[in-house]
Design a protein that fits this description.
25% helix; globular; 5 helices; 166 residues; two-stranded antiparallel sheet; six-stranded mixed β-sheet; alpha+beta; Peptide Methionine Sulfoxide Reductase, Chain A
């Protein structure tokens, strides 16, 4: 199994999107790239911490490749937006790819170069090593499954039928 942490706006929608995909074994939501360990949702939202909301994805690379995970990520986020996804605005909604395996950095950068080609210099998504992912509180885990009418900036319908779990 492989894992990666993706920040793409509100973590509820990112998690709900990836949870429906074949090859994704597990997900969790949490906070990454901040100024302290184990921040609370309140600290992230009010700016006392500098974290991004993020989703950790554990996937079976025999079923879904790193490149496919990245393609899904760029399908659901606006990679050119700074500190904003959908109606969510703020530092905690910045986009980033946080690597659990730093050896994948060149693979991710090569994918982005190919995917964005002439627009690569406009991409606001940061690529960093994951050094501080902390789980969010339990009420945020699988939030949209527990609250199916909750707000979500991610269009969950962007996953194609053949990409979804049965």
């Amino acid at each position: 199994m492989k894992s990666i942490v993706l920040a793409g706006g509100c973590f509820w929608g990112v998690e709900a999107y990836f949870d429906q995909l074949k090859g994704v074994v597990d997900t969790s939501v949490g906070y990454v790239d901040g100024n302290k360990r184990n921040p609370t949702y309140a600290e992230v939202c009010d700016g006392r911490s500098t974290h991004a909301e993020a989703c950790k994805i554990i996937y079976d690379e025999k079923i879904v490749s790193l490149e496919q995970v990245l393609e899904h990520f760029f399908r659901i986020v606006n990679p050119f937006s700074i500190n904003r996804q959908g109606n969510d605005v703020g530092h905690q909604y910045r986009s980033g790819i946080y690597l659990d395996d730093k050896r994948e950095r060149e693979q991710v950068l090569a994918f982005m170069e190919s995917y964005f080609s002439d627009n690569l210099d406009k991409v606001a998504v940061k690529v960093k090593e994951n050094v501080d992912y902390d789980l969010a509180e339990e009420n945020h885990q699988k939030y949209l499954k527990k609250n199916p009418f909750g707000y979500c900036h991610v269009n969950l319908g962007l996953a194609k039928k053949d990409e979804k779990k049965s």
